[in-house]
Structures are given as structure tokens and as C-alpha cells.
Amino acid sequence: MILDVDLQKHLGDFQLDATFRIEGKRIGLFGPSGHGKSTLINLLAGLLTADRGHIQLDGESMYHSGSRVNQSPKKRHIAVVFQHAHLFPHYSVKGNLLYGYNRLKSGQHKLKPDEVIDALEIGKLLDRQVTSLSGGERQRVALGRALLASPRLLILDEPLSALDHNLKGQIIPYLRKTLSRFDIPYLYISHSLSEMRLLTDQIVMLNQGRVDTITTAEEMALQRMASDHRGYVNHLQLTNPREQGTLLGYRWGKKELYLTDRNGHHEGLFELSSKEILLFKDNPGAVSARNLFEMTITDIKPIGHSVAITLGNEPNMLISQVMHEAAHELDLKVGGRVFVAIKASVFRPLA
Predict the structure, then answer these.
(1) Which of 11, 55, 139, 351 is placed for a possible disulfide with 62 were both Cys, Cβ 3.0 to 4.6 Å?
(2) What is the pLDDT of residue 183?
């Protein structure tokens, strides 16, 4: 997908003046609330008309003020999933799912209902009324409805912001799996850097109605490491939990990590702050931290008053955060080996 945008829109005291060109299938639109994210996606979907400018998607002009081109929302064929599901209350789950699907012309269907229903694990919900669904279930149905409309672009407008942490943890795996499986280009809108890192490859940064920069979520997370109270948040995919005394042992690549049992016996994604990863030049011997192992330093990057120490390589990579003085005293160098200590209590289940 290639999205070329140059739009101006005045709304009260707010002025949107956004210009960017981006290519990819997993694009994020990131910025604080009130900085123009929702205005921009409403312009893209045709729900709002710009004062001037243009929108091109894969070379096709959807809006051009100079040429007086302004395609209707239906003709743009862009589906939107909002932070509130906006399901039709008078339809069942099945009726909602098939709403857009049944209105497509012959040959326009890209996905089969059974495929989407299976991916989102909502087969048992089909006959239920949407008013009886939980927040996570409603969002899964809204996503399924949008996918079955076979859009050329899917816009996800802060679909998790109305959910609490536990519900976010439930819906994120469905989003990742489903969006990857059906390979539909999407624009993901959020002010959550964690969501951006899990669901996008590139990010358009909006600030006061203007495009500040285009970057990646990982690069943004690193740059914010020194100023964020949690530092850089590592995402670890942990599997095969088993009881180890009062702890749970999880597989992480070839290593086993020990965690306190706060998530039950469930595998999934866990967060680990860079500030919770202690480094030792030599084996410290007996320590209270339940996780102690060696890793190789693969990168060292000064960021503000801290230094980001990258350990290992993807998919089993960690980033630790130390002060400049500590990095000097430990004589940390790329290619060197260090001992890593992590307490069992500092892992946080994400999804």
C-alpha cells in the first residue's frame, strides 16, 4: 500500500496540516489526544471533507480539491473500526458480521466468513444479541465485520482504548493473529506506544495537527527510554509454563525464566522494564534474583543520561538500561559477555 496525503482542515481553534507519503501494510498513526489523529482518519475515510489538499491510495485519487475529486465513503472502500464497536443493536452477531459482506458485488469478496469467524474465535457467539457481549467480544465482532467488507484499507481507530488492561491483553493476540493472517493493509491509530510496537512497522507521528516525523515504534521506544519512568519495555514471548516450587518456569528460546505466579499457567507476551535488568561483569554467585544467566552484548547506544545495552538477538533479545558511569565501570563493549540478573516478580503479563 502507498498512501500519499496532503491535507488541510480547520475545525474551530484546531488546524490540521498533514503531509506525508508512506508505503507498507502495517502503518501506525501516533500522537497525544487532541492532536489530529481522529480528524485525519475521518478525512481519509470520507466521513469529513478537507478544506484543500489531496489523498491518493495506491495511485488512485480519492480526494483532490484542485480537481474537485471527492469519492464517497462507499467508493473509497475503507473500513473503520472505532474505539467503541458501534455494532447494530437490532442485529445478531452473525447479522453484524455479514452486514458489509452481503452488500458486496459478486467477485469483490476477498475473505470467507468461516475463515474470519475461525480466526477471531467467535463461532459460539453467532446467534447472540450484541447487547449481551463483553467489551472484548464486541471489538472482535467489529473487527470481523470490517474484514468481511473486504476493504482495500482497514483503519483501526484506538480499538483498545475503551478496554481495561485485562481485556486489552485478551484482544491483542486476536488482532495480531487476524491482521497477519488476512494480509489487509491497515492504519492503526493509538497513543499507546506498546500497542504500536506490537502491531505496526512504521509510525506517522502527529503533533499539534502536523506530521512531526515518520519512524518505527522500536526507535521511538528507545529514544524515550531515558525520559519514561519505566525505561524501555522489553516484550518477551514466554511459553510452556510449569511449576517450579512457588514459581513458574517459562521457556524463552533456549532459556528458562522464572516468574511469580500472577498470570496463572498461561503462556503469552510479558513486559519487562530495562530498569529491572541488572548486569554483572562476573558471576555474582548467590543473589536474590531467581533469573541469572550470561548474554552477549550486541549493541551499545547512549540515550540521554542513560545507555541502552542490547543483549542477544531477536527473537530472544533484551535491552538493559544503565548509567554512563556504570557502563564505564563495567567496561561494557559490543561482543563482550555479561551476567544478567532479573527478579521473578518484575515480569508483567501483557497478552
Answers:
(1) 55
(2) 85
